[in-house]
């Protein structure tokens, strides 16, 4: 029987089917050397390499502080994360599994001083047969590359990005929620400038980390209860020709204050308008906006909106269901005629919005009569069925990681 230490070595050495060829190829291409046991020796603590047997490593077998069905969307420690380092002249290092959740960083790192940092978010789901699948990971690779281009950061090629994620999932496979829990393993790839700079210039070193954690619904109740939103009038999310279209850390820091103020007023979600005219719908704090009117699926098209992979998937599903998809400018006045409104994104998946209030004049836009709309339900059920392996994956979105 394999020990946990041997199991982890097999993951990093590419000896498991899900990562065999790609990890080895990525290492040769980007680091100039094959993966070796040196990746493992200095980074895995004794706690993680003790008596646990790999045979016990099955999805949904980790011991948590709550039941799988009661998971919210919050941090919970898992076994490990994956780390790679890029240095100018030598490229990407070999990937390593790290147990210590703390990161040692240079005091002059560009991420700390100039915000050279971006991240992604995706999920892994357990199917009924016990297999585990990522949902559209290459799309996340492409979006992170876009963020890197905007911030002049080193890019991870698709295969290196995806296989780093696979290694993180495999080493934490017991933290993937079981199929019946309706939860998922949330995956957070993070890239930041770790090289020292004092003058404003790109770093010569970048650190890529990939952590994972089991999650449930982002908003308590998930699809069971529409949330009430507020139209954000005091603050802007992103400026025209700025960085709203990429997933950089600073975009979310800027939303912390408005987000907390909204929640204190009783609104768990805020809808931002365009910064130039304050007349167009852009997106919610952490998710895209989608509106349903008749047989139309309507979502804003703007250079300041982050392209959501979930929204992209829903647009395709809407077309598959015979709906008209309109990706265009959406005026705030159009909220009046929306039958249903959805907040969509990796974390929330699909969250029905029951109302949006404009405090300046007390106007309250209401959708769905306080209940989940039929189209919202249909779209949610369809995308979740694909993610859970319960519906045909006609577009090849699921990528198997385990076994």
What are the defining features of this structure?
403 residues; alpha+beta; 9-stranded mixed β-sheet; 10 helices; globular
Can you walk through the features of this model?
The strands form 2 sheets. Strands 1, 2, 3, 4, 5, 6, 7, 8 and 18 form a 9-stranded antiparallel β-sheet that branches. Strands 9, 10, 11, 12, 13, 14, 15, 16 and 17 form a 9-stranded mixed β-sheet that branches. The protein has 10 helices and 18 strands. With 403 residues, it is α+β, with helices and mostly antiparallel strands. A hairpin with a 7-residue loop joins strand 10 (269-273) and strand 11.
Strand fraction band?
Answer: 25-35%
Q: Output the number of helix runs.
A: 10
Assembly state (oligomeric): single chain
Briefly note the structural class of the backbone.
alpha+beta
How much is the radius of gyration in Å?
A: 22 Å
Helix content: 10-25%
Given as residue ranges, the uncertain stretches (5+ residues, pLDDT < 50) are: 15-55
- The helix/strand order is HHHEEEHEEEHHEEEHHEEEEHEEEEHE
Terminal CA distance reads 17 Å
Largest sheet: 9 strands, antiparallel
Count of extended strands: 18
If you average the pLDDT, what whole number results? 89
Q: What gross morphology would you assign? A: globular
